[in-house]
């Protein structure tokens, strides 16, 4: 028989061989070389590539719904990608008079910090890529470092606009840090742990509490639904704080284009602007994912965990379970991004003093009350 | 403004013992001749006894042997009408000096600078007598509006200066010095806003001395858009000037054309013969323009405070009125509707039936905007109590239009000095007293609604008749002064005819220049974040205000800015660092 690639049987066989080599072979490889799995995890899924694609997608999603709410058409799906390509080919200028070292080194550091924050996001299982006891605090610490880097960029650009933007970003960070921390503390108290995965697994969040009450009535009585009240307050304030962290209206005085022409990143061009811009997109994805994890239960529905487990297992990988988890994670993140965008659409930019007043005078007492309510409920129930 | 007990301007003039210039054609425009020495005394008397504080502009004219200076003061008469008492004073060419009236009328500061810039008349005791509009490259001894120099010569001189090599060196030195000056001030740092800035639609420059987030002092520079229109008017025929007049500004093009047409009609003494239908069409156009200007204004205000949704929504709804204007005139910006003696186009009955439902939709939309903008707390906290202007300050600084009405000054040229068909129509004039940005917003929202009602009423009650009367190409000698309530406030045009087919002198004062002194007052003490909305509150229309080549006049430095200079200047302007940059 003459061997020809046009022969349908040969074609089928060769496809099957390729399939076996690529799929089965890689599993074999992964089992024998665990380092490759790590590399796969960190660089492909759920690591850098997934985070990048996800943040670009959510950037598009946000711009699209922002535009639709404003009666505009909005950008096409690949617009964020084109933006990045455009920034890549732009000339990279370091202007005279800037502090060269800080100015050149901080934008890449911002990107690294944002990626590090995104690594904590639980995407396909309750644990993120990095997970340890106390990682919630470490996350908040990383956010503070990011705010510090923003201040340094503004300062090193040696421009009044940049200087004002940088100092405003630092003031905003000082204001939002405590409300955001206290917002994360509430679920942590309920879970009895400061680890993100434990908070998710505890099942005390806005989606899992009703599910628990319905599906596990022996362990959770109806009064558990009362936890939803303080948790929704904390969720609301966490979303508003996310708006401030991401410098979006109403809490974007550090960025205000019409006042200080973009604020701290006014002097950034080309790749430096790209790093800074990408860091913001990744931070948006990561922060929305973490808020979704803490308040909406992260990947999957924890009380219904056993229903989806073990349906399609390849090697040590529970493919169907992971698929459902990733899907629910994306949906929950979408909800958070949607809320961020709604407040961005319907509100007007506040001045920096008004931002400080809102956070210290209103949100801080409210969140304290919510926290006290949680502690009281724990004592009563 | 406070009413006088007097019925007519003639009574006031005779009670003050002023020499009335005959003949009196229009009772609300009274010219009185006074000697320059008496000027200050007369103004003091007008201020003290007749509650006069509003000076519209200062008109200057080169008569060869002497300069004619006209000071049009507004006087509110007992019937509620706003008369113009125009003080006519002459000074000798060889001794071109006159007392400054800034001590009495603080709002005259930019008018006197403009007269000095254009005609070289020295104002004694003026606090800050510098050139304001003309380019730095213009030699110091050349004053553009003098009759001994033509527009061609000015153009040639400017082109020569541009070719000079040393100008570039001078520019570098100038920029370095300017920058040093900003940094060595007492404040923490200086922020330059403009000539190019996202908060500004047109070129104007502010340098803010800032301590922390508070503005301590501000330097204001205008004239970047000076196109020499007043000189250009003198070289064109009366009918060609119609189209030049509407190109003074893009937003209030109709107001400028209407004002010019009315001034020419007064000059030709045919203002009473204009057909009624033409007057109604003029009113409709003016009101439609007011609607689109106000919608633009509060849309951009929302954008300046980061409320982009309102910006998008208002600009979407503004398309309704733009479509109506396009349907009536065929154009979206320069409508070319007015002609000397009437209007050029009719509004047919079919158009009226199409337009009225559109306007009713627009009224609902504006009510929606009003609801959104006055109820959204995060937006309102940015407006309320910011940069307030008291009624006394507003009066003394000669503010006009919505800016004055938001400070409690009940003045509206449409009602007080009626033109077109406004005396046949009924409308309210909203007045609030707070004087902050929010009250400016409320005034504009209410005025937009009233303008919609006015336009509908005018469309419904429009009488049949001719559109225009025949006017010869040569206007008989005389002078005419006219004002209209442009969207931004009182717009005033003065024309002088010498009997030929070209005007002898045309003076335009756009409302933005009248509001500039109050803007400077408002800007001091505000926060950096409030700079864009506060600049917006007077609705700056730099195109109208400047009217001339590129200019840069600071402390008499004579410089010319070419395209490359402009770019380098722009780059440096916004990069005024906290330390000296080396060139």
| Average pLDDT taken over every residue of chain B | 81
Radius of gyration of chain A: 23 Å
Number of helices of chain B: 20
Number of strands of chain B: 16
Helicity range of chain A:
over 70%
Explained architecture:
The complex is a heterodimer of chains A (381) and B (583). Chain A has helices spanning 8-32, 34-44, 48-69, 79-89, 100-119, 135-156, 160-191, 196-202, 208-215, 228-245, 257-260, 270-296, 305-308, 319-346, 352-380; strands spanning 313-314, 317-318. Chain A is mainly alpha-helical. Chain A has two domains: 1-32; 45-56 and 93-380, no CATH class. Chain A has a two-stranded antiparallel ribbon with strand order 1-2. In chain A, strand 1 (313-314) and strand 2 (317-318) form a beta hairpin. Chain A is globular, with a radius of gyration of 23 Å. The N and C termini of chain B lie far apart (54 Å). Chain B is of the alpha+beta class. In chain B, helix 5 (166-183) packs parallel to helix 20, helix 9 (276-304) packs antiparallel against helix 10 (308-329) and helix 11 (349-375) runs antiparallel to helix 16. Chain B folds into three domains: 9-132, NADH:ubiquinone oxidoreductase Nqo5 subunit (Beta Polymerase, domain 2); 154-226 and 554-573, no CATH class; 229-509, Orthogonal Bundle (Cytochrome-c3 Hydrogenase, chain B). The chains are: A mainly alpha (381), B alpha+beta (583). The A-B interface holds A 69-72, 95-97, 158-161, 163-164, 249-250, 252-253, 256-261, 345-354 and B 189-192, 197-199, 210, 213, 302-310, 312-313, 316, 376, 378-379, 381-382, 527-532, 574-579, 581-582.
